[in-house]
Amino acid sequence: MLLTIGAIFFIYILTKVYISVMEIGYVSDEKKNKAVILTPSNYIKAAEYKVSSQRMDIVSSLIEYLIFIFWVGFGLKWLEGMIQIDDIAMKSVVFILAFGVIGFFFSLPFSLYQTFVLDKKYGFSNMDAKLYIIDTLKSALIFVVVASLLTWLISKIIINIDSWWLWGFGLIFGIMIIINVIYPTLIAPIFNKFTLLENAELKESIEKLLSSVGLKTEGVFTIDASKRDNRLNAYFGGLGKSKRVVLYDTLIEKLSKNELLAVLGHELGHFKNRDIIKNIATVGTLLFIMFLIFGNLPQMLFDAIGVEKEPYSIIAMFLIFSPILSLFFMPLFGMMSRHNEYNADKFGAECESKEELASALIKLANENKSFPKSHPLFIFFYHSHPPLVERLKRLGVKIDD
User: Fold this and answer.
1) Strand 194-196 vs strand 220-223: parallel, antiparallel, or unpaired?
2) What is the rounded distance in angstroms from the CA atom of residue 317 to the CA atom of residue 117?
3) What would you report as the CA-atom Rg of the chain, rounded to the nearest whole angstrom?
4) In 10 A of CB 140, how many CB atoms?
5) What are the backbone angles phi and psi of residue 205, rounded to the nearest 5°?
6) Is 345 a catalytic residue?
7) What DSSP string describes 55-71?
8) Could you count the other beta carbons within 10 Å of the beta carbon of residue 355?
9) Which SS3 state, helix, strand or coil, does residue 85 take?
10) Mapping DSSP to helix (H, G, I), strand (E, B) and coil, where does residue 195 land?
11) From 23, 259, 310, 345, the catalytic residue
12) Phi first, then psi: what are they for 222, rounded to 5°?
């Protein structure tokens, strides 16, 4: 049994590494060609950033495999023996918190390198040590509260209900929807300062755009994203009455009014086409499949690892193995998402013009140093958005590639 699950995890890691190697080779070759969409200097920087990021992902994947060997080989058994609590639900809470803390320390070097080396080198990160520590402590507090509550609830369901996986799925899916509702008003403000948009002319234009598709929101807000990062972004957050239009302060500085409206028009296209509902349904489907699988794991798996089949070990198995399912479901979700993005681009172009949307996308790519091309295999597995070259071609922009 251990050899089987080890082989499955090895194939998963090998797939990730192979995809990254193919992307590195592809981007390195394209880097030598004439720049498209981006300025020549940004084209080179974007390629170098992509290659550096993928190299880091390869190292991260190899470490992920070592962590898997640690947990399956003796880590889960060791942690089970360390926690001497008779109440199984409470033991599960402590077990999963400890599991999460250990995982955090394994991932910390990669987070530090990404933030303070890679992103600093390419002019993205404005993060300093103080803000990083504050963000980490806030995230840790949220993790402790949410993970403790969910673990306790799931544990009680596993202990008391035979078909626990079905009820567990319903609980987690319901909480996921609640989090989407409260995120813009309760969670996001923990990390960023939200301010009502002060530009009256822009605000009026945005509200007119929203009303044209019947979207009622809590308001149009800007956030102080630049205190952490220089990349540009905007999004619609929340569900129901909690919906907000959120603009990064960096976006307002770099885009013209019409370009910004075209970008928001693209986001409105997702609303008009009910893509948010589709995405929630898609994630719910994957979550259901995961609960179905992990709710029926054989006893021999737990025997092979040397742990009792209890809520804490079942949840740990879910956390260890769910990335495998996610990776191999991603191509299907990616195809759906890329299709939705093309439709959203079409709507954004209709809201303003295809020229304004194309101009905005090009500015976003230059400022965010997003390399406009990718290897087909990388696109197949990872891209939720079509490559920028293809998006611009669909908008009728001539690309000399």
Assistant:
1) antiparallel
2) 33
3) 23
4) 13
5) -65, -40
6) yes
7) HHHHHHHHHHHHHHHHI
8) 15
9) coil
10) strand
11) 345
12) -115, 150
Catalytic residue among 64, 259, 267, 367: 267
Q: Considering only CA atoms, which of 91, 165, 179, 174 is closest in space to residue 318?
A: 165
Which DSSP symbol is given to 385? S
Residue 224: active-site member: no
Q: The tokens of 197 are what? A: 């948009």
In whole angstroms, give the CA distance from residue 391 to residue 244: 26
Residue 6 CB neighbours (<10 A): 15
* Token couple for 279: 């995405």
Burial classification of residue 356, based on how many CB atoms lie within 10 Å of its CB (0-12 exposed, 13-18 middle, 19 or more buried): buried
pLDDT tens, residue order, the chain (401 aa): 778 888 999 999 999 999 999 999 999 999 999 999 999 999 999 999 999 999 999 999 999 999 999 999 999 999 999 999 999 999 999 999 999 999 999 999 999 999 999 999 999 999 999 999 999 999 999 999 999 999 999 999 999 998 999 999 999 999 999 988 888 888 999 999 999 888 888 888 888 888 887 877 777 889 999 999 999 888 877 777 777 888 899 888 889 999 999 998 998 888 888 888 888 999 999 999 999 999 999 999 999 999 999 999 999 999 999 999 999 999 999 999 999 999 999 999 988 889 999 999 999 999 999 999 999 999 999 999 999 999 999 888 877 66
The amino acid at residue 284 is G
Q: How many other C-beta atoms can be found within 10 angstroms of the C-beta atom of residue 320?
A: 20
Q: How many CA atoms lie within 13 A of 241 on its CB side?
A: 0
Report yes or no: 224 and 249 within 8 Å, Cβ to Cβ: yes
Q: Give the residue from 302, 320, 274 showing the smallest Cα distance to 68.
A: 320
Amino acid at 233: N
Spell 142-152 as b/e; 16+ CB within 10 A means b. Answer: eeeeebbebbb
Q: Give the C-alpha separation, 258 to 254, whole Å.
A: 12
